[in-house]
Write a structure and sequence with these properties.
Blueprint (H helix, E strand, L loop, with lengths): L1 H11 L10 H11 L4 H14 L8 H6 L7 H9 L2
Helix pairs in contact: 1-5, 2-3
Length: 83
Amino acid sequence: MNQVVEVFERARGRPGRRRHLPVALLHALGTLLRPFNPALARQMKAEALMGSGPQPFEPGPMLERYPVVLIPLEEWIRQRYGR
């Protein structure tokens, strides 16, 4: 996630705010929050998964089935948020 924040910082031209929580805490919060806020609980579980190690993604099969034009994250940020 630090890499994503760094791309946003470069594209926006200003520093972002970073917070880090232990993966075990995210996992526990995901379980504890489920009865009260299922959407937030899912986000916590997803973040725990992303923080547990590399999550490689091969877009080839998806692009064969759904041919879309991919753009670099920095370009998307500039289009969405400007600079």
